[in-house]
Amino acid sequence: MTVKPIRVWLTPPGPNPWKVIFVLEELNIPYEIKSFAFAEVKKKPFIDINPNGRVPAIEDPNTNLTLWESGAIITYLVEQYDTAHKLGHTTLNEKHLVNQWLHFQTSGQGPYYGQMGWFNVLHEEKIPSAITRYKNEVLRVLTVLDGVLQGRDWLVGDKMTIADMSFVPWNDRLDDLLVQPLDETYDGLPHVRAWHERMAGRPAWMRTCAIRKGLMMEQGLLDATGMPEGYGSIQEYLADLKEGKVRG
């Protein structure tokens, strides 16, 4: 049976959509991207797809399923399309361990890294206590991963799964989030660094990055911040977003 392309709704700057593209590329599942501006994320037609107004979301014409939340999407893709179990496990314990780590990524890594980016990079007022809190949380997450990865290549079993892959897009932004060299961030954390680099060197991730770069360029976005050219601060950008007069 021919698989029809899955439509992926995304705005290019954020990390979460790229979990989905990474999995689609790794599994060679046909897809098409509906890329749109961040200014439209809380407007129709996207809020008809995801009433929460967050990317990514997918529409799968093969099953007539519309789905949002990146963790739910990549779990679905593996269950529905990974018939060879390339990125998952079939045994009871391993299936639930993959789910455990995926929940840790969506509830731990993503929110803490996001807050780190906001307070350390985007927020107009520098609040030392907030920056310290979220930097410590980023390092705590990395330390947890480094300890678990000592003596093993992957989080669950002997192969890369969606549990591992889900961490890549945010860890790929560590230098931007912490505004410090990666060598400094990874000092004393060799296992998590090697794990990330194993995945970042995969052809599927490199294709994912190339797609993201192209979509960012189409919208005239600065890679590190997701703002269009011509803005000096996120506050200027948000003010223009509110008034519907974004530059670029």
From TrEMBL:
Stated EC number for the protein is 2.5.1.18
Q: Show the GO MF annotations.
A: glutathione transferase activity
GST N-terminal domain location is 4-85
Q: Which domain of life is it from?
A: Eukaryota
Q: Enumerate the CDD domains for this protein.
A: GST_C_Ure2p, GST_N_Ure2p_like
Q: Which reaction does it catalyse?
A: RX + glutathione = an S-substituted glutathione + a halide anion + H(+)
Outline the extent of the GST C-terminal domain.
Answer: 91-227
Please name one Pfam family that this protein belongs to. Answer: GST_N
Q: Which UniProt keywords apply?
A: Transferase
What the record says about family reads:
Belongs to the GST superfamily.
Tell me what this protein is called.
glutathione transferase
Organism ancestry: Eukaryota, Fungi, Dikarya, Ascomycota, Pezizomycotina
